[in-house]
Amino acid sequence: MGGAALLTLLVATWWTLPGAVPGITAPGPLIEYGLPVARLILDLCALATVGLSLLPRFLGFDDPGRTEATLSRARSWAVLTAFGWTLAALAAMVLSAAEVTPGEAPDPAAYVARIGNGQGLVISAACALVYTCFGLLAVRFGEKVPAELRVAVAIFGLLPLPVSGHASNWYWHDLSMVSMELHVAAASAWTGGLVALGVLLARDRELLARALPRFSRLATVALVVVAVSGLFNGLVELALSPTTRLPGSLFTTHYGWLVVAKTVFAGVIAVLGANIRWRLLPGVARRQATAFAAWALLEITVMGLAYGVAVALTRAAVA
């Protein structure tokens, strides 16, 4: 997933970079490419943290002797992904500060004080660090540190992130923020949950049979939320821009093409998810051998492509 997301992001970033403007200092390749890469790492670490935190809810708590070994690994990995999330958020903050003062030494403190994006990244980093502390306690004391608490902290850490995208510029600010936050939270739970199942449970028929039906119900709801909110936010950006007009701008602007690409990827993911739910799930529930691992890997790869486009969308000019 990470490789597909990184490749898509780099291509999309190169494709959407604005041309040089005489008299204006450009940030330079380190910022132009480093900042979206830092944001992608943040997103991937965040979704992994959310997915690993949800795993106890998918497996249930009625058979700790059978599930504890897997949950112990999940808790340990979640500490690492949360700490990676913290570092990526701080790196994105520093690079963002450098972007607004090209040719000068970055001043992250001033950037955070003046710019909402910096404040959002600091809050997200703080939540990830708090999760790291809770995660360490969970490694030591197990599910005595409730999974619900860890999930809540991780989801809350995602909510400030939309302020760094186009949604923060729309005059219907509140509705836009709610829509984007729902989009980010649902996408992380859906993608992170599938990654956790694919990595930790694909070879264990018994545990997969317990977890996949519960995840499948969550994934269905998340798919609807992600598709509707993502399309809504993309279209309103184009509709409210004074320099674009729908539907033509979907195919005449870089931003429009990215919206189309992300929508296509979402459609492919929906088809792959439907195949897992309707064709493979009955066999998984009967503890039979299935091709779940292969189909999950394919779906996760397409999710990576969608995440790469999503990060590029947050930085692409609408016009």
From TrEMBL:
Alphabetical list of InterPro entries matching this protein: CopC/D (IPR032694), Cu-R_CopD_dom (IPR008457)
Domain of life of the native organism: Bacteria
Subcellular localization: Cell membrane
Copper resistance protein D domain segment(s): 209-313
Membrane topology: Multi-pass membrane protein
GO biological-process terms attached to the record: copper ion transport
Transmembrane intervals: 33-55, 76-98, 118-139, 151-172, 184-203, 215-235, 255-278, 290-313
A GO term from the CC aspect: plasma membrane
Pfam families reported in the protein's UniProt record: CopD
Principal location class: membrane
Keywords per UniProt: Cell membrane, Membrane, Transmembrane, Transmembrane helix
Protein name: Copper resistance protein CopD
Species, as recorded: Sphaerisporangium album
